[in-house]
Amino acid sequence: MGDGDGWANCDAGHRHWGRHGAAGLLPYCMDPEPYILLQKRSRLSIGGGTWGLLGGARHSHEDPVEAALREASEESTLDPSIVRGLWLSREDHGGWSYDTVIGSVPVRAEVRPQSFESAAVAWVPADQVARRRLFPAFADAWRLLSRSLYQLVLVVDVANVMGSRADGWWRDRRGAAERLRDEIAAIDGFDGVPGAVVDLCYPKIVLVVEGQARGVGAVEGVEVVAAPGSGDDTIAELAAPRAPDERRLVVTADRELRARCESAGATVTGPRWLLDAIRRSCSA
User: Fold this and answer.
1) For residue 1, which of 39, 56, 64 has the smallest C-alpha distance?
2) Taking every annotated instance into account, which residue ranges of this chain make up the domain Nudix hydrolase (predicted)?
């Protein structure tokens, strides 16, 4: 038992499990089409006999990703270390919330039940999920969650973004690039992602540097690519998705580069979106 185990009432007067809210994990694997790992609830659980997510109560010290991974490992033999968190979808009931963490796994390994709450766990083709007898709340959410089974790669035109704010970047381009890198690395989930239908994204981040900013190193969670020549050429090359469940979002205000990236299959947004995310992160 943790300090989150227990009942709570939301502002609408409904009773929910989880004193600090609850979280569930929606893992998927491309094999080659997406398969979803679902839990069949035991008869001793709420909604017994229905299929839904591995999950449960959040504890006060946990963020939603930590809670979802812990609950999944308690209720099944899924190894949480192989799950890459990609998206978070929140249902806010006022005073109580349920967070769904969408993550990818590299292989569709065998997973078995590991607690009395799980009657069974199974990998189900995504296009067959709706045919199961689903837990009602998950059935409603699945229409939205099913559109988020992909990884976002964020490709940042560093020179263009630096040029969009007057912070003295022209006096020390490398230092300004390192500052931008560290600010981006500190963001704990990006909201308002163009084209996204859920609340937060945990993308793979790639910064492209050129000229005097070459030599900037990577940090945890942020890859840095030094363009051997034109930064625009390198960014255009990186704009093309590399996997069936991958989409790329390029951050630049350069109109010509925007057209090249869109032709390669990427979505493009301006520096303002990224700078606003940095601003919110710094003020949090």
Assistant:
1) 56
2) 18-151
Give dist(CA 39, CA 113) in Å, integer: 8
Do the beta carbons of residue 148 and residue 186 sit within 8 Å?
A: no
In a structure prediction context, what are the per-residue pLDDT tens digits for the chain, which is 284 residues long?
689 999 999 998 999 999 999 999 999 999 999 999 999 999 888 889 999 999 999 999 999 999 999 999 999 999 999 999 999 999 999 999 999 999 999 999 999 999 999 999 999 999 999 999 999 999 999 999 999 999 999 999 999 999 999 888 889 999 999 999 999 999 999 999 999 999 999 999 999 999 999 999 999 999 999 999 899 999 999 999 999 999 999 999 999 999 999 999 999 999 999 999 999 999 87
CATH number of 7-148: 3.90.79.10
Which amino acid appears at position 236 of this protein?
A: A
Please spell the DSSP secondary structure of 74-112, one letter per residue.
HHB---GGG-EEEEEEEEE-SS-EEEEEEEE-SS-----
**Segments making up each domain of the chain, as ranges:** 7-148, 151-283
pTM: 0.92
Q: Scan for tokens 């040029």, then name that residue.
A: 163
> Of 74, 39, 42, whose CA–CA distance to 58 is shortest?
74
Neighbours of 112 (CB within 10 A): 10
Q: What are phi and psi of 142, to 5 degrees?
A: -60, -35
